[in-house]
Amino acid sequence: MSIRTQLIAAFSALILLALLLAGGAVIALRLENERQAALDRLAVAAPQITLDLFRLQRQNASPETVLDYVREQARAQDVRALIVDRAGTVTIDTGDTLRGKQLAIPEADPAGPAGYRMWEGSGEGQDGLIFLAAAVGPGLGERRGGPRIQLPLLTETVVLAVPQQTVTNAWRGLLPGLMSAGLIALTLSAVVAALFARSIARPLQALTRASEEMARGNFDHDLQVRRSDEIGRLASAFNRMAREVGKSHLQMRGLLANVTHDLKTPLTSVIGFAQALRDGDVDEPAAVRDTGAIIHDEAQRIRLLVDDLLYLSEIESGQAVFTKEPVELPALTTRAMRRAGPALAERNIRLEQALPVALTVQGDGRKLERILDNLLDNAAKYTPEGGRVEVRARREPGTGVIIEVFNTGSYIAPEDLERVFDRFARLDRARGRAGGSGLGLAIARELAELHGGTLTATSDAAGTTFTLTLTEPKAVAATATTPAGTAPRPAAL
Questions:
Q1: Are 115 and 134 contacting, i.e. CB atoms less than 8 angstroms apart?
Q2: Is residue 25 within a helix (H) or strand (E), and if so which, with residue range?
Q3: Helix-, strand-, coil-residue percentages of the chain, each rounded to 5
């Protein structure tokens, strides 16, 4: 069963239940109203008929006249009328079932302001009847707190009755109207429920179709769901997920292609030179040593690429071991710059630093060194001969520790700034590829994020700057300050 059908069924069942409860409440109220209306009619009619009977007796009216009068009043008041003598025997009954039978009128104070007493009948022919008698007549006791009412000439009492079934069956008259109203309400509610269910089901169906397309490898989806509720947020989240999955899929395909390409070239060299050694094409000792050196260098290149791939995989899978401790940044930076110094000196590239006297960050020292090594290695590749590389660091309140690696003579277009962190990123020919695995910046960014920091790049005509932002530990913030009046100054190495 589809969710649309389930919603329509649920809404219809809920509305039907509400209609049943409302109808039951209306019937209950109507029953009470009918009961009260019937009793009010008896309360109004009983005293008047009793007084009229008293006048007829004083006028010595014939029994036929009295009977006709009682029947006329019973029809007019829509009640059943009985005449009861002093002995409690029914002499006249407009219903013709209690004539000649005894009727026990309770000896109790009259109930209600209209001056009547009411009781439910019991006994043969009386079950199911509600009786009411006026507070005057034979056998009707005294009013509470007042004298006994004496009508010596009144030898008979009028008792009115109404069937309980007349009251309890009043709800049946409501059934046609209630059923018609319920049918109309149920039909309208089903239409509204169908429209509402459609508004929920349609975006879910679109999500289902898009998910099925993604399972087939089609990640180009943009669901147009213009609503701000949970379904709208779900559609927005799905669109973001589809874009990220598609991006990751393209990156994975590009990674596979790049890994294949970067492995193919050194492997071809290794196979070619190894075959030359095997076939004896190289027999001079010096040539053999050169060939062996080439094979060794190409094998090292393959090993570095595989190591970087494995290291990057460990970081992304959360398997990389991470220790968090205070790290003195100046000492760490100095070690990284010493390692990069020889390669930069060969190309006459100046290496400068601008660091505070003391600056402490929280993190893993070896991994922070790996970030700086990769940034300096990247700067060495793309800085022209005779250029300059500078490492700067400072503390910004509310942000943390900022480490910048700047190199001259290298420009990256704005649209390529984020791509430099992709694995095996291939930008314009002006930057080229100067060796390496092509994973250095990708590893550096992953390590920065592992520390809870960020690594970004900016570029202009002067050169390119990579900015590493790290959170400074509060416990050591007071010690990581530059002495008053002392500013960081560049120092050539």
A1: yes
A2: helix 3-58
A3: 55, 15, 30
Residues 249-279, buried b or exposed e (16+ Cβ, 10 A)? eeeeeebeebbeebeeebeebbeebeeeeee
Domain limit, last residue, from 130, 155, 173: 173
Residue 289's Cα: distance from chain center in Å? 69
209 falls within a domain:
no
Q: Does 223 reside within a domain?
A: no
Asked if residue 191 is part of any domain, the answer here is no
The model's pLDDT over 226-259, given as tens digits with 9 standing for 90+, comes to 777 777 788 888 888 888 888 777 777 766 777 7
| DSSP string across 262-283 | HHHHHHHHHHHHHHHHHHTS--
Contacts for 420 with CB less than 8 Å, ≥ 6 apart: 412, 427, 441, 457
Give the total number of structural domains in the chain. Answer: 3
Q: Does a structural domain hold residue 190?
A: no
Q: Tell me, yes or no, whether 7 and 38 share the same domain.
A: yes
Domain boundary (316, 351, 383) is at 316
Q: Give the N- to C-terminal CA distance of the chain in Å, as an integer.
A: 76
Q: For residues 76 and 320, give the distance between their C-alpha atoms in angstroms, rounded to a whole number.
A: 100
Read off the CATH number of the domain in which 54 is found.
3.30.450.20
CA-to-CA distance for 445 and 436, rounded, in angstroms?
17
DSSP output for 66-105: HHHHHHHHHHHHTSEEEEEETTSBEEEETTSSSTTSB---
- Residue 342 sits in a domain whose CATH number is 3.30.565.10
Q: Based on the fold, state whether residues 367 and 304 are members of the same structural domain.
A: no
Query: In which domain, by residue range, is 413 found?
Result: 325-492
pLDDT of residue 350: 92
Q: Which amino acid is at 453?
A: G
Contact residues for 208 (Cβ-Cβ < 8 A; gap 6+): none
Mark 26-56 as b/e (b = at least 16 C-beta within 10 Å): ebeeebeebbeebbebbbebbbebbeebbee
Quote the percentage of the chain above a pLDDT of 90: 11
Taking the C-alpha atoms of residue 451 and residue 443, their distance in angstroms, rounded to an integer, is: 13
Residue 375's pLDDT band (cuts 50, 70, 90): very high
Q: What is the largest CA-CA distance in the chain?
A: 163
Class of residue 422 by CB neighbours under 10 A (exposed 0-12, middle 13-18, buried 19+): buried
For residue 455, what are the β-bridge partners?
A: 468
